Amino acid sequence: MTNETAAPTWLIVSVSTAGGAAASLRVQVWRKLRSLGALYLQQSVCLLPATADVARDVRRLAGRVRQGGGTARVLPMAFTDPAAEQAVITELNAARDAEYAEVLQRLPELRRELAHEQARGRLTYAEVEESEADLHRFRAWLAKIEARDYFRAPGGDAARTAVAGAAAELAAFEDAALRAETSELASAAGSGRSGLRAAARP
C-alpha cells in the first residue's frame, strides 16, 4: 500500500491586517487579491491556483503584510476530491464571466459613439484620438481579466471578439477621417489656385 498525495496545485492564503497594521495596507491587500482573482472561502482566507506567477505575487504580498505589522500565511494544498476541485473552478469561471459580461455591456457605448460621430460627419483626428483612448482602456481592462482567467472561462471569447470588432470599427473610422481630411485639403488647395489665377488675369 502506497501513501501517495497529489501535488499541491492550489494556495490557501490567510491574511490579517488587524492590530497595528496601517489602513492603507488593508486596501493594498484587498486590491492585490482582487486583481489575482482570489476566491474567498471566508473573511481573510482565500484560494488561488498555484501558478508560478501567482505564487510569486502572493509571496511578495505576504512579505509586505508581515513588514507592515500584519500576519500572513500561505499554505499549498491539493484537492483529493475532483468534484470539489471542479466546483471551485466553476465558481472562479463564473466570477470571470461576470467581468467579461461587464466589458460586453459597456463596449457598445464606444461603438455607438463612433457611429454617431460618423453620421454627424465629425470625422476628425480629435475624435479618432478620443476613441483610441477609450479602446486602449477596454484592451487594458480585458488584459487584466485574462490574467486572472486561469481556467479559460467561456465568456472570454465573446469579450475578445467584441473588443476586436470595436478595433476594426475604429480603424474604419480613422480611414474615413483621413479621406475626409485629404478631401478638405485638396478642395482648399484647389480654391487657392483658382484665386491666384483670377488675380493674375489682366
Number of helices: 5
How many distinct domains?
2
> Ranges with pLDDT <50 over ≥5 residues?
none
The gross shape turns out to be elongated
Helix content: 55-70%
Distance between the termini: 113 Å
SSE order: EHEEHEHHH
Mean pLDDT: 86
Count the beta strands.
4
Radius of gyration: 27 Å
How would you write the strand order of the largest sheet?
A: 2-3-1-4
Largest sheet: 4 strands, antiparallel
Structural class estimated from helices and strands: alpha+beta
- How much β-strand is present in the residues? 5-15%
Characterization of this structure:
The protein is α+β, with helices and mostly antiparallel strands and 202 residues long. The chain has 2 domains: 10-78, 2-Layer Sandwich (Alpha-Beta Plaits); 86-197, no CATH class. Helix content is 67%, strand content 11%. It contains 5 helices and 4 strands. A 4-stranded antiparallel sheet has the order 2-3-1-4, sandwiched between helices. Strand 2 (39-42) and strand 3 (45-49) form a beta hairpin. Helix 3 runs parallel beside helix 5 (156-200) and helix 4 (125-147) runs antiparallel to helix 5. The radius of gyration is 27 Å and the shape is elongated. The model has no long low-confidence stretch (mean pLDDT 86).
